[in-house]
Amino acid sequence: MSTREQTEIERKYDVGAEAVVPDLDGVTSRADLAGGAGPVLEVARVERDAPAHLRAVYHDTEDHLLLAAHITLRRRTGGHDEGWHLKLPPVAAGSASSGQKTSSERTGATGTDHSAADSSAGEPGGSTRGRREVHAPLGSEGEGVPAELLARVAEQIGGRSVAPVIVLETTRTATTLLDVAGAALAELADDVVTATVSSREGTEPVVRRWREWEAELAPGVDGPSGDALLDAIEERLLAAGAVPSASRSKLARGLGAEPA
After folding, report:
1. Residues 127-176: tens digit of each pLDDT
2. Which of 69, 136, 137, 230 is an S-S bond match for 146, by CB 3.0 to 4.6 Å?
3. Are strands 184-197 and 206-217 parallel, antiparallel or unpaired?
4. CA atoms of 43 and 186, how far apart (whole Å)
5. Rounded distance, CA 39 to CA 30, Å?
6. How many helices (H) and strands (E) does the chain have?
7. Separation CA 229–CA 183 (nearest Å)
8. Contact 45/25 with Cβ under 8 angstroms?
């Protein structure tokens, strides 16, 4: 079974049920925001997809050792990237594997993906960092976690078995931000999430619901220009009523380990 690895950079925001995704045409990574470094990125048009239904089954040890290590392991169906996803903390600068996509996240920026925020690792230059995401094919539901992914977390789980701990059902409306040549610069995901925590014997499942926006850079968009583009997107999201998310991940929030 083949796997592939990329770097995921996103900023997360909490929004109310009545919030409306703002117009993102013309968003620009101004030179002053980028510190004068890197090209200026400008959104020439946007494309909004029809809502998609995503179902993610997260696996962990009974005492959530992976979550404690800021690692998530899930099998997701629906959407363009269905399959197994293993999300890992960042690696130190210069140690990314060959062929890995590099993106960017500004250290200390509001609305960042707090699942990566506890690591001091960054990209060259120190301005950006992001989580590593390893993908494996979906396979059949009864096949279990791919051995290649389990091997990557063997140290964290210490021989413990992993099993489903939560199911996240997400209705996602994605908006792709494109430059004048039609190349993707970023994506804004508008997610309505329902989390169902596996019940213990004699108890009812715990269900939590919320809505969030995620702004993520496209592959190859990174460095100061990527940071500045996220800053410019953030300005419009905050003006539309979003607030930087206090949660480091959907998994932690769904399990009740983060503010609801």
Report:
1. 345 778 899 999 888 889 999 999 999 999 999 999 999 999 999 999 99
2. 136
3. antiparallel
4. 9
5. 9
6. 5, 11
7. 14
8. yes
- Please tell me the pTM assigned to this model: 0.80
Q: Which residues pair with 72 in a beta bridge?
A: 87
Cα gap 117→114, rounded to integer Å: 5
Structural contact between residues 110 and 231, judged by C-beta atoms closer than 8 angstroms:
no
Query: Two tokens at 85?
Result: 């996803």
Which amino acid, 67? Answer: L
Question: Which residues lie closer than 8 Å to 206 by C-beta, 6 or more apart?
Answer: 196, 197, 199, 256
Where do the domains of the chain lie, and which CATH numbers do they carry?
4-254 (2.40.320.10)
| Cα–Cα distance for residue pair 106/133, rounded to 1 Å | 18
The C-alpha atoms of residue 103 and residue 96 are separated, in whole angstroms, by: 12
Report strand pairing: 184-197 vs 163-178: antiparallel
Question: Rounded CA gap, 22 and 10, in Å?
Answer: 18
CA dihedral sign, ordered 225, 70, 77, 259: negative
Show the tokens assigned to 69.
């290590």
| Residue among 198, 210, 216, 224 at smallest CA distance from 258 | 210
